[in-house]
Amino acid sequence: MAHNHQPGSRRPMADINVVPFIDVMLVLLVIFMITTPLLTQGVKVELPKTSATAMDDRDKEPLIVTVDASGNYYLNLSDKPNQPITARTLSHLVSTQLQTKANQEQRPVMVRGDKNVNYGKVVEAMVLLQKAGAKSVGLITEPGADKKVS
Questions:
Q1: Is the per-residue pLDDT at 136 higher than 60?
Q2: Pure H helices in the chain
Q3: Which helix (H) or strand (E) holds 113?
């Protein structure tokens, strides 16, 4: 039996070709899988565990100075965040950041000190930050179990 095809009797096709969409989604998935580990950069430090309350979320990104177990300083805004910087460079970068016109309202300044670092290095970082113009300096800790002090 032959099929008689009449001109003008074709119905519009209602199917959507999803193959290009799937291709794009797979490419995006691969890109995100590769770039996600790169977003979590930083210096490995073991923070002391405390039962402190969390800070209020603010609009401004805080300046975070990290002091690793060897006593080296790192700043989250430096060109190479995984390379240590000197105390002089730290002071200069922080004072520059705090004095810009965009930072008329004081940015939060925080110190992440490794729990095995000499206490003097953390205090030295806090003094450098205050001399650079930070009105207050906070400490970053990890939440831990409440311990009874006797």
A1: yes
A2: 19-39, 87-99, 119-131
A3: strand 109-113
